[in-house]
Amino acid sequence: MKKYLGRSIKYLNDKTLIKAAEYSTKGGKYMRPLITVIAARSVGGRLKDALNAAASLELLHNTSLIHDDIMDGSSMRRGRLSLHRKWGKNVAITVGDANYALAFYNLSRNKNPNAMRVVQELSKYTMRICAGQLMDLRSSKNGSMRNYKKTILLKTAKGFEVATKIGAIIGGGDKAHVRMLAEYGKNLGMAFQIKDDILDIAGSEKKVGKSLMNDIREGKKTLPLIYALKKSGRKKELKRLLKQETIGEKEAREIIDIVRGCGAVEYAYRAAEKYVQKAVDSIGNLPGSVEKQLLVRLAGYAVSRGK
Questions:
Q1: Model confidence at 144, in pLDDT bands (50, 70, 90)?
Q2: Which of 73, 93, 231, 286 is most enclosed, with most CB atoms within 10 A?
Q3: Does residue 255 sit in helix, strand or coil?
Q4: Percent of the chain beyond pLDDT 70?
């Protein structure tokens, strides 16, 4: 995938754009393109076609991360400086725009008869990312569980859903295969995002590869925080800390102590594990194969990573 992305980026035809785009794609886990390829292979698809679709999805996902880091003011991404901190906001925004164009140009060169369906799915996914991002920015005003689930569905789970769905489509799967794999991806994405919430509170910056406490500093309501605000015996103190204009290291440690002390992290783990089980159950009728086994193992990884 790294080599395929590298060849695609060369089409940008500008040295600065190419270098900055290459920088932005390094260090990722490539979870979405990986499950696209596995899904395609699980229904008998060609690797070449799957890689093309997977690379386009990764370019779109990468753009969402670039823009997200700018809007959140995040300084770290994948264990090093975020793109806008390394190259400046103007270059970062331009790389994001170029990635969008490159993703769809990439797909236009795919000769698979189902390529246009993939274009449609990725176009809808892009619109959902935008809706999810705005909802995420508004989450500080609406910290309900319902709003949280809707936000992570649009912002994260739909990305995993489209990954497995376009894999099944480009691989030539029938309607039942597409439906099963899409459901798997959606539930995997929910589990993945909840684990991200846990890592933001209880992770190691070195292992996670990005700044911690970013969501809380931005006023966003993550699952452990929503639970703590309802169940913690120190919720009044927690609300006071969250209302502060600036959350420094001292305040951050206090927030972490309150959230960890009320069982919020354990609650979030249980929620993530339920989505993992839903993901595994959704592909129960998928024909047995090495690829199916890989999908089951990846579902477990969504929760075990970062330990």
A1: confident
A2: 286
A3: helix
A4: 94
Give residue for tokens 């993945």: 192
What value, to the nearest 5°, has the Cα angle with vertex 28 and ends 213 and 100? 100
Q: Tell me the CA distances in angstroms from 209 to 81, 205, 277, one per residue in order.
A: 10, 6, 27
pLDDT per residue as tens digits for the range 275-292: 999 999 999 999 999 999
User: Domain locations in the chain?
Assistant: 2-304
Give me the phi and psi of 81, to 5 degrees please. Answer: -60, 135
Residue 243, H or E segment: none
For residue 76, list its beta bridge partners: 81
Q: Which of 94, 61, 95 is nearest to 78 (CA)?
A: 61
In a 3-state reduction of DSSP, which class is residue 232? coil
Average pLDDT over residues 111-124: 97
Amino acid at 115: A
pTM for the full predicted model = 0.91
